Amino acid sequence: MEENTYIHLDQETIKRIDEKMPPEEEMQDLSEFFKVFGDVTRLKILFVLLSSEMCVYDIATLLGMSQSAISHQLRVLKQMDLVKNRREGKTIFYSLADAHIVSILSQGLDHIEE
After folding, report:
1. Residue 83 in contact with residue 49, Cβ under 8 Å?
2. What is the bridge-based pairing of β-strands 54-55 and 83-88?
3. Domain ranges of the chain
4. What is the spatial distance between Cα 83 and Cα 43, in angstroms, rounded to a whole number?
5. Element of type H or E holding 94
6. Phi and psi of 66, rounded to 5°?
7. Considering only CA atoms, which of 86, 93, 99, 21 is closest in space to residue 59?
8. pTM score, two decimals?
């Protein structure tokens, strides 16, 4: 492989950057992860679940949306490990998967409110 020539970068800086750069597969996963936050409905669901675990019916009622629309978005959030669920009888309750989600939402809000 031919070595690149840089105008302002020394080899030490290039090496440091290369060492910190995640592998391509992780970058793809990270990209998909952040895409999930690019949908207003999914963000609203996450903010609802910040307060309390809830079933689809209650989330749909609270957000003024159909249960099928909420179910679809919850499926996406669950696939990305942002929410988890538990069954109680016939009802499934959803909650945030872990404290990381709270931090991500909080830091995102802090950033845009600066």
Report:
1. yes
2. unpaired
3. 40-113
4. 12
5. strand 91-96
6. -75, 155
7. 93
8. 0.84
Phi then psi dihedrals of residue 87, to 5 deg: -100, 135
| Residue where the block lists tokens 């809000």 | 109
Q: What's the distance, Cα to Cα, between the start and end of the chain in Å?
A: 44
Give the tens place of pLDDT for each residue, 23-75: 999 999 999 999 999 999 999 999 999 999 999 999 999 999 999 999 999 99
Task: Provide the CATH number for the domain formed by 40-113 in this structure.
Answer: 1.10.10.10
Alpha helices in the chain, H assignment, sequence order? 11-20, 24-36, 40-51, 56-63, 67-79, 99-113
Please work out, in degrees rounded to the nearest 5, the angle formed at the alpha carbon of residue 72 by the alpha carbons of 88 and 39.
120
The token duo for 92 is 């499934």
